[in-house]
Design brief:
93 residues, alpha+beta, 2 helices
């Protein structure tokens, strides 16, 4: 399953989650995971890979802005995209 996404918008969503979201210690102990509007954001150990996830769907963004979605069905993907939109609309309180 391949879906198109504006990679620059995805990077803005990642930054907004990191800046405005709740910080949680990652299981590996090396990096942190941030949560906002039902999405979580984290970086890979190499610093070149970032992941946005809602538990069912994940979006991995790699070096040179290549990306890959992983989701079980279209409903999970649509739910992820709704949460993606919620982060875009989120205002700092």
């Amino acid at each position: 399953m391949r879906n198109a996404i504006d990679i620059y918008q995805a990077l803005r969503v990642f930054n907004k989650i990191v800046e405005c979201g709740e910080k949680h210690k990652a299981e590996n102990g090396y990096n942190s995971r941030y949560h906002l509007c039902g999405l979580q954001a984290e970086t890979g150990f190499d610093g070149y890979t970032i992941t946005l996830s809602d538990g069912r769907t994940s979006l991995n963004i790699y070096f040179h802005n290549k990306y890959q979605f992983d989701y079980p069905d279209n409903e999970a993907f649509e739910n992820f995209m709704r949460r993606f939109g919620d982060v875009i609309k989120h205002t700092v309180q």
